[in-house]
Amino acid sequence: MPKVFFSRCKPYELDAVDVALESNRLFFGYTLQKQGAVYDRHKIRSCIVDVTCDDATWAAEHAASDRNRQYNRNRNFVREIDAGSIALVPRPSSGVIYCGFVQSEFELVDDPAWYDTWDRIWRANTTDDPDEFWIAGEVAQTWRVDKFRAIPIPRIPVWIRRSLFGRSTYGIVRPYGGLDPYEAMNLVLSSDSFIPRTWTRDPEEVERRLITDVTPGAFEHLVVSLLQLEYPNEFWTHVGGSGDGGLDGLGANASGEVVGLLQCKWAYWGEKLNLNAQWASGSIQPREILASACHDDAQRAPDGYQFIDKKMVASLLVKHAAALPQARALRIGQEP
């Protein structure tokens, strides 16, 4: 079954995106070297183990290696990718994510025709001997892609792109909150612009837009704005940064006493919260609030917390749409 998956294409932290774009190949490294083999960049299969080999060969080579868990991860990763899958190469520094459809099964390429491009990148950034690091192997584990399209980052749904900007060098984008990544990316690739949006007041559609269009940082600001509108006699401020004690929003009364402490979780799966009530002062016991845009329908907040769940966020967005610039960007409310 086709998947959506990504690779940073940054072996040894060197930006090799040009290799991917020129060759129409998505590649990843962490190669398992054959025991006792001599490196030959023209005969990669003679010195590097193909992760699609039979189980007996794999077991023997893996047992003789340093048994790095990454090798088995590679093998399992490759097994999940079929022709027709959508390959992504994130480049946030350029404001785009390169996307393309996989046209072949996985290949360990014996003599990569694109090696020279990679070799130039290597030599431009380091004086190390490329043969000492077996660098051809870093671009030899590949899938052929029809072509890479540079898609501006804002067009990629938030719940997909947040999977791409973590620490993992490659991975598969999994379904999220009932959404299918393959269906979502197919829709993106079938259009040359933002997917047309109609104005809506439908709470279910508003819930969907919260996780397709609103980043975690923007969600914090959105909830603070909603609390300000919902409690006009209070004074709500966004809080963030070192020493904030896990706090994302702070509500105060006219006397300056804290009456509300907000923690936002763009996605909440029941983990323990570490909201520090250090901001509280005076005789008022502030209410502790948890807000989330994505969670299981049956999810509950920890004891003592007021839960502004996805349904309530959507409801408040519809209620206060006329006063919210964020609602206009999301096309929520009545068309002006």
Describe the fold and architecture.
The structure is a single chain. By secondary structure, the protein is an alpha+beta fold. It has 2 domains: 4-189, no CATH class; 203-329, Trna Endonuclease, Chain: A, domain 1. It is 28% helix and 19% strand. It has helices at residues 17-23, 55-64, 69-80, 115-125, 158-161, 181-189, 203-213, 216-230, 310-319, 325-329; strands spanning 4-7, 25-28, 86-91, 96-101, 107-108, 141-144, 149-152, 170-173, 235-238, 249-252, 258-267, 287-294, 305-308. Helix 7 (203-213) crosses helix 9 (310-319). The radius of gyration is 25 Å and the shape is elongated.
Features:
5-stranded mixed beta sheet, alpha+beta, 336 residues, 2 domains, elongated, Trna Endonuclease, Chain: A, domain 1
Compact summary:
With 336 residues, this protein is of the alpha+beta class.
Task: Provide the spatial order of strands within the biggest beta sheet.
Answer: 7-4-3-1-8
Largest sheet: 5 strands, mixed
Silhouette: elongated
Tally of individual helices: 10
What's the overall average pLDDT, rounded?
92
What's the alpha carbon Rg, rounded to whole Å? 25 Å
Share of residues in strands: 15-25%
Summing up helix and strand content along with how strands pair, one would put the structural category as: alpha+beta
Number of strand elements: 13
Unreliable segments (pLDDT under 50, ≥5 consecutive)?
none
Q: How many domain modules? A: 2
- Helix proportion of residues, in percent? 25-40%
Order of helices and strands: EHEHHEEEHEEHEHHHEEEEEHH
Q: Termini, distance in Å?
A: 43 Å
